[in-house]
């Protein structure tokens, strides 16, 4: 007998719009936080102890917020909106002021990707003003690093992930495009190292596991495609899993590398074992498209949560610590 599907341990309401992006910050201080960005331009800071919004900030002129993150070891929030702005917020001592902003020129839905290169210095990658371009700048100086534009027509850049490999090689970036292609970029050389056709439809989302050099992407079709990087930085399509219904908004790998979660257009959240893409659970609660998923960064594994944000204006929180003992 299969176990009954679990229910959320609690839900957060009052965001006032579709929940496009979620980000946990549970390792600093006594108050675990969940940041959410809404389609109405609001960023909520949810206190997970009281289960209420501790603060609400608005800095994108009512435009949809599509990405939020926090800078490690600082009280700085970073947010991206469809007003073509990336904002840096000072949250120190209860403040909520925009310290700085970056104009991206992009009105698309491609979320930024950030990489800490040295203490206090970060690279920020974002879709640029031109359809296919990716711009990378250094923060906090905002010094331009490079612009990456493919030779062939790929259509709009849809999703990106920037990381620093262990090999000592310069930063790498993988990008998913409107034509279903994945391109692996060498940021230092501004060149494409390899490419693969992962989907017949536009790639809507991707995530990458730096530890095992393996990624996964989703599109408007009913398939997740997994791929790897070999020792020569060649993208190789590995395997795929077929979904019951088409459409994936976002993908997230848990920090321990055991679980993968997907946000579905069919209102469902799916959990897979990351090692073999084995389906483990289908979480049903939302009444509209699930737009975002995020695993918490609690140090204690027993406290770890999964959050899902939906077009129905609600965030569901799930405890899946004991879900699927064998997560292969």
From TrEMBL:
Transmembrane segments: none annotated. InterPro entries: WD40/YVTN_repeat-like_dom_sf, WD40_repeat_dom_sf, WD40_rpt. The keyword Repeat applies. Gene3D superfamilies: YVTN repeat-like/Quinoprotein amine dehydrogenase (2.130.10.10). It comes from the Eukaryota. PROSITE patterns: WD_REPEATS_2 (PS50082), WD_REPEATS_REGION (PS50294). WD repeats lie at residues 283-320. Keywords: Repeat, WD repeat. This is Guanine nucleotide binding protein (G protein), beta polypeptide 1-like. It comes from Cyclopterus lumpus (Lumpsucker).
């Amino acid at each position: 007998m299969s176990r009954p599907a679990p229910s959320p341990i609690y839900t957060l309401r009052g965001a006032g719009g579709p929940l496009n992006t979620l980000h946990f910050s549970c390792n600093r201080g006594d108050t675990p936080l969940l940041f959410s960005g809404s389609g109405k331009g609001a960023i909520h800071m949810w206190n997970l102890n009281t289960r209420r919004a501790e603060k609400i900030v608005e800095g994108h002129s009512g435009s949809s917020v599509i990405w939020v993150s926090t800078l490690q070891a600082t009280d700085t929030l970073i947010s991206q909106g469809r007003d073509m702005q990336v904002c840096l917020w000072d949250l120190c001592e209860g403040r909520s002021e925009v310290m700085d902003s970056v104009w991206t020129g992009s009105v698309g839905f491609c979320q930024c990707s950030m990489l800490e290169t040295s203490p206090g210095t970060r690279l920020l990658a974002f879709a640029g003003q031109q359809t296919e371009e990716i711009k990378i700048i250094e923060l906090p100086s905002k010094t331009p690093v490079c612009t990456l534009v493919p030779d062939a027509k790929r259509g709009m850049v849809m999703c990106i992930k920037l990381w620093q490999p262990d090999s000592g090689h310069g930063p790498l970036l993988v990008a998913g495009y409107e034509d279903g292609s994945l391109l692996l970029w060498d940021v230092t050389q501004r060149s494409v190292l390899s490419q693969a056709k992962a989907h017949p439809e536009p790639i809507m989302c991707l995530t990458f596991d730096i530890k095992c050099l393996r990624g996964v992407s989703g599109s408007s079709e009913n398939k997740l495609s997994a791929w790897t990087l070999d020792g020569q930085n060649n993208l190789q399509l590995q395997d795929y899993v077929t979904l019951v219904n088409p459409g994936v908004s976002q993908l997230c790998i848990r920090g321990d590398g055991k679980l993968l979660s997907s946000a579905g257009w069919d209102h469902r959240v799916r959990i897979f074992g990351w090692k073999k893409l084995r389906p483990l659970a289908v979480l049903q609660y939302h009444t509209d498209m699930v737009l975002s998923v995020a695993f918490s960064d609690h140090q204690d594994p027993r406290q770890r949560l999964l959050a899902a944000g939906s077009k129905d204006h609600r965030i569901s929180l799930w405890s899946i610590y004991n879900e699927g003992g064998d997560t292969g």
